[in-house]
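Appendix C reproduces, verbatim, an entry submitted by the partner laboratory led by Prof. M.T., so that reviewers can inspect both the input and the predicted structure.
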Amino acid sequence: MTPPATSAPATPRTVVLGWLAAGVLPLLAIGLPVAFADGTFLAFRESVDQTWGWMQKLAQAWQAGYLPLWDASTQAGHSFAGEIQPGVFYPLHWLWLALFERDGALALGAIEALVVLHFAIASLGIYGLLRHWRLSPAAALGGALCFALTGPVAMRAIAQANIFHAIAWLPWTLWAAARFLDRGRARDGLATGALLGLQVVAGHVQPALHAALLVAAMALVGGRARHGAWPPAWRAALRLGVLALPGVLLLAGPQLLLTAEYAQHAYRWMGGELPVGPDGRMKYSDFAFDFIAGPREFLGLLDPWRFDVPDMNRLWIGTLPLLLASWFLADRARRASVVAWRDHQPWLLAIAVFAVLAMLGHHAFVAALLRPIPGGTMIRQLARHALLLHFVLVVAFACALQALADGHRLPRPPRWLWIVGGLQLVWLLFADEALLSRPAAWHLAAALAALAVAAVWPARRALALSACLGALAFHVVDGTGASVPQRRGDQPPRPLAETAPSPVFEPVAAGYGRYRVLVADDAGLPRNIALARRMQSRDGYGASMHVDSYDFFAQDWSRDGRIADLLNVRWVIGRDGLPLREVARDDARGLVLYERERWMPRVFLRHQLDGEGPAIESALGLEVVEYTDHVQRFRFRAPRADDAIVAEMDYPGWCAQVNGAPAPIRPAALPGLEPWHRAVAVPAGEVLLEFRYRPFRARVAGCG
């Protein structure tokens, strides 16, 4: 059999146009609905509570000129950088703030634009990788658009923008690793590590773990196939790891240090009713049964409207890419004819098999193997391994486009099959309870039309590729575009209304650093509203919480309990009807500010533990000299030597001075309560008590 003629080499003009298309088309496909329609990436509550709030905190820090390692506004104070997800060290965040921060805030449009930019970053990265693997510009472009604009990549943008930002750099990491494995240049190994570090600081370790798994499979399994033996593969992988490590530490070292410290003392919400402790693993009943993709959900490859996977882990890459990838993989000659697939088939198939078995959860054995491994539950939702399967299917689709460009022909069914298939397709389109949902049937029709063009005119390769890319565009616009970005509907995004002036927030802002506030659930405010307002809340929202804080708060979550007193909670924001003294009202929002009957001041002496807040403040003459995220200074008069109890969390990295002299911080042992407060010994007389958060210096040189 004579092999088909290969496509002509790309001209410089074609190469440039390919790069432009890979970068510009995602901006148009995603950016236009945001800019001119009613699309938004801040529709889900998690995005509003986290993405919007975190960006406001970063904007405040940018305006004030500091790096926000600590957050004094939510959870009664906690490690902002240690949580990792806010992306404190992410360079693009700070570039965006330099461009768009205004008056300590980042507008909703700027946040949306940053998400849109990462669609282009993801597309350009996969385009560069596929071009490095010697695919034509057209085939690489199809793969790039499919990767960035469909499946779990696109869907993640509307759920957790920080994870999406990290995913966008995954193909760039693979591209750098592929260059190293092909050419052996040290700078490519360093770049691999730097890009892995960039994924970490973008806001989550999960995409970096997926990238590392792909790189390891490419180096080891792919190296074994390339060299015909394991020792050369191991040597290349080891050299890549040694070179990548400095890059990871350079980009992500400070972030990893703070995250490791925080993770040792944090609960994580990983499914189930209760959080998982720092030394605990998820229950098998949670890990292998919740947020998986069972056999039924895999039908979402063809019909996501009826068989979608939980938590935005969508499998659908478009009907045409799925059919073309299946056609390509079904024939050994086609697979062997495309260099990209021939060189990388072993490790790509290994990754696909692992992803499928992992996603199946308790239906397969992989979940039972992953759970006991240290760190095996860091990717707590097994369905999130859909990203790995998505990558493999995208590569297979791009290789299928290359096979078409090289002259491989699609089969031409007999006429009777055309007639039967056409009748069945009409039935799918118009029957209410057909095999596929109606949207899936329309997408199948578009895919079959494109394949028919390629089958009827096989010699016209440009026409066949154009028809396929056109069908892909239909999948993106009609399929993905219906949900990414989300439609705002009749209501504007909630964050737009939360930054306007309000009489409810004015007294709270005036007491910043002196009193905390509780935000009632029925207030309808974002759970991280304190990050955008000048206020301090007992509560907040994130994927984790410090053990000491959770244990202390959980002793009594009520609005009127002793724990709220000791946490210095003076205010409550809610709706009408609370049995508390009303302080201010915002009729436009339906919000009311109340004052609690009892509360302890931010600083009090141990012998005053049973006193009343106003009386204690008056007796101490308590003055808040300075209060920021990283510096807290209080002045007061102590009638005798005693322990000053401070309603701030005792956490590593905080250093204290009393009247200018270093002083040790001890956990405050309050009768019958879990420790949380700071205790510092103070002398009688005038006292200037100062706290500074210096986590790196304190770790290296202590607080002296």
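Confidence is low (pLDDT under 50) at residues 1-6. Additional entries are available on request from the coordinating office.
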